[in-house]
Write a structure and sequence with these properties.
With 286 residues, the protein is an alpha/beta fold. The chain starts with a helix and ends in a 15-residue tail after the last helix. An 8-stranded mixed barrel has the order 1-2-4-5-6-7-8-9, surrounded by 4 helices. The longest helix is centred in the N-terminal third of the chain and has 33 residues. It is globular and about 60 Å long. The structure holds ligand C2E and magnesium ion (3 copies). The site of one magnesium ion has 4 residues, from loops. This is Diguanylate cyclase (GGDEF)-like protein.
């Protein structure tokens, strides 16, 4: 009967909650050891210019290869890290290692993701500027990627932080744009270099008028503000053509390259070409 099945459901729910909590604890304790155990690495995904498909920068993406369970995706462990203090150690590790790799590239920038808690921490500006100074890197070669969540809770303070970073020469990108709670009014007051259109809109573009409309309006907004627009998650030739027509300034996605290890990224940086071979015409140019 209904009562009994309700009870059964409640029990299943409890068990899956337990399961969930146990999983989170395992992730937390594993992440706490991940740096010492050498389980972290960075991969780099090229960002290319719309027309010439020149590699202008790379997004650094964190990878965690656990001894016990194999690779675990950042989409899964970053939110758990973000809810604990682990985010700060992980974030430090990412920034330090991304800057070390960057010094081996000729002129491109590295785009590093900063979580809302990292961004809102006191002395964030000093922390980042001190990090690049120690690495001997020019601030213009670090792009700071933050999401709307990081800046819209306390828009006034965020605007100050972004303004200070921009005056020091850092690049600022608003990641996953369109999925958060941006108000257009606020966008105007933020010192930004580019908007990154969330992958979900690129993916939906060929199927739904709504996604295509959102992609077009983000590109128009970027143009009106005089800033760049990077389309993320570009997987097909049709998307490349549509985004070129729409006027996105830069493209990033599996169509061009998956995220690659540092050594491969270096080859792409030196040749400014996907796959490291400038003679091989990029597929997108065909
Ligand atoms: P994100 O910053 O939006 O990064 C883009 C994600 O899309 C990456 O997933 C990338 O591998 C994936 N991607 C790129 N091109 C394509 C494509 O054509 N198709 C598909 N299906 N996916 C594509 P990844 O590496 O799994 O990272 C997921 C998220 O985890 C990131 O989203 C970011 O929010 C977070 N993350 C990763 N590394 C870091 C980090 O070092 N620090 C922080 N705070 N967050 C990170
Ligand atoms: Mg990102
Ligand atoms: Mg993104
Ligand atoms: Mg994301």
């Amino acid at each position: 009967d209904a009562k009994r099945s309700g009870r059964r459901m409640a029990r299943v729910f409890d068990e899956s909650m337990d399961e969930d909590i146990r999983f989170r604890r395992r992730v937390e304790s594993g992440l706490g050891e991940a740096i010492a155990n050498n389980e972290l690495s960075l991969v780099f995904q090229p960002i290319v210019s719309r027309e010439s498909i020149e590699v202008v920068g790379f997004e650094a993406l964190l990878r965690w290869n656990t001894m016990a369970y194999g690779p675990i995706s950042p989409g899964l462990f970053m939110p758990i890290a973000e809810e604990s203090n682990l985010i700060h150690d992980l974030g430090d590790w990412v920034l330090r290692n991304a800057l070390a790799v960057l010094t081996q590239w000729p002129g491109q920038y590295v785009s590093v993701n900063f979580s809302p808690r990292q961004f809102r921490r006191h002395h964030f500006v000093d922390y980042v500027s001190e990090s690049v100074r120690r690495a001997g890197v020019d601030p213009s070669r670090l792009q700071i990627e933050i999401t709307e969540t990081a800046i819209f809770d306390d828009a006034e303070r965020a605007a100050e932080t972004l303004g200070a970073l921009r005056r020091m020469g850092f690049r600022i990108a608003l990641d996953d744009f369109g999925t958060g709670y941006s108000s257009l009014h606020n966008i105007r007051t933020f010192a930004l270099d580019c908007l990154k259109i969330d992958r979900s809109f690129i993916e939906g573009m060929g199927r739904e008028r709504e996604s295509a409309a959102i992609v077009h309006s983000i590109i128009s907004l970027g143009r009106a503000l005089g800033i760049g627009v990077i389309a993320e998650g570009v997987e097909t030739e049709a998307q490349v053509q549509a985004l070129r027509l729409a006027g996105a300034s830069h493209l990033q996605g599996f169509f061009f390259s998956h995220p690659v290890p540092a050594a491969m990224a270096r080859t792409m940086a030196e040749t400014r070409a996907i796959g490291g071979d400038p003679a091989a015409a990029p597929r997108a140019m065909a």
